[in-house]
Amino acid sequence: MDLGLKDRVAIVAASSQGLGRAVAMGLAREGAKLAICARTEATLKATAEEICKATGVEVFSKPVDVTSHDQVRAFVRETSERFGRLDICVTNAGGPPAKPFSDTTVEDWQNGVNLNLMSALYFAREVLPLMQKRQWGRLIAITSSAVKQPIDNLILSNSVRAAVSGMAKSLSNEYAKDNVLVSNVCPGYTLTARLDELSAKLASTEGVTLQKIQERWTSQIPMGRLAQPEEFANLVVFLASERSSYITGVSIPVDGGFVKGV
Ligand SMILES: NC(=O)c1ccc[n+]([C@@H]2O[C@H](COP(=O)([O-])OP(=O)(O)OC[C@H]3O[C@@H](n4cnc5c(N)ncnc54)[C@H](OP(=O)(O)O)[C@@H]3O)[C@@H](O)[C@H]2O)c1
Q1: 47 in ligand 1 pocket by Cβ < 6 Å?
Q2: What per-residue confidence (pLDDT) applies to 235?
Q3: Which atom of ligand 1 is nearest to 67's Cα?
Q4: Binning pLDDT at 50, 70 and 90, where does residue 7 land?
Q5: % of the chain with per-residue pLDDT over 70
Q6: Which of the two ends of the chain, N or C, has the fewest CB atoms closer than 10 A to its terminal CB?
Q7: How would residue 189 be classed by pLDDT, with cut points 50, 70 and 90?
Q8: What is the pTM of this model?
Q9: Beta sheet of 251-254, edge-to-edge order
């Protein structure tokens, strides 16, 4: 299937590693031109070079903290000026700390809102007018399977990401008439640095091995294994494409069957 992504211009936020990087690589393999960002310049630059070398596409990279509206605004403006258009935006950020409610502070909640909700909002504010003007666009938020089925000890993630999926659904209704499609994709347990961080935290809290934590997760997944980032990215790439022309307002898990609801 030709996804029709050649020469489309895509922003992928928080993409120096993990899920964001896999999405950026997937879009580049289909010929999309890329703008990627993260806070740490060295790893971001290395990723941009790897993607460029592997795919031959033009990659613009810029250190950006997605919790800063000013930095997001400047990044979107530079991207659209450099490439002359902007077709696709995938929002993403790091994850909030794993804690039960009783251990959270008001500051943790404010940080979580800034990291996962406000960052997605900043991108939406900047990219939607550009997409509306061209009457074509794809805005895709990376959220979590937690929006379908809250996960113990992740109350910050469970709460704030549900707000992102609510925002995405509302935006999908408002912008459908402009052929701008808005969805969110919900990763299950996927092998990235974030998962290492979560398993290390749980292992030290419970005094068990990392292997024990991973076995517990795996036992809850009908497919009996954790995901590779590319398996998540494949769906995002499809939703970003020309072929995904009638799908909007959805929250789709990529979780090996982890979410128990129908
Ligand atoms: N992996 C999973 O199993 C899983 C499951 C459900 C949900 N998620 C969520 O999906 C998202 C991506 O997860 P991941 O596993 O790919 O995480 P990851 O491997 O830790 O990668 C996070 C990426 O985001 C960047 N980043 C973090 N904070 C940022 C900020 N404020 N501004 C700009 N860039 C920022 C990081 O680079 P810098 O640190 O250099 O900025 C890095 O490139 C997270 O929100 C995570 O909680 C992951």
Answers
A1: no
A2: 98
A3: 31
A4: very high
A5: 100
A6: C
A7: very high
A8: 0.98
A9: 59-63, 33-38, 9-12, 88-91, 137-142, 180-187, 251-254
The CATH label, of 3.40.800.10, 3.50.50.60, 3.40.50.720, 3.40.980.20, for the domain at 9-188+228-254 is: 3.40.50.720
How many whole angstroms separate alpha carbon 75 and alpha carbon 63? Answer: 9
SS3 137: strand
Give, for ligand 1, the residue of 12, 17, 116 to mutate: max count of ligand atoms closer than 8 Å to Cβ.
17
Nearest CA to ligand 1 atom 41: 39
Helix (H, G, I), strand (E, B) or coil at 210: helix
Q: Give the Å distance between the CA of 221 and the centre of ligand 1.
A: 22
Best residue among 44, 76, 90, 92 to mutate for probing ligand 1, ranked by most atoms within 8 Å of CB: 92
Distance CA 134, CA 210 (A): 49
Q: How confident is the model at residue 214 (pLDDT cuts 50, 70, 90)?
A: very high
Separation of 63 CA from ligand 1 center, angstroms? 14
Length of the chain: 262
**pLDDT per residue as tens digits for the range 34-57:** 999 999 999 999 999 999 999 999
Look at residue 70 in the predicted model and tell me its pLDDT. Answer: 98
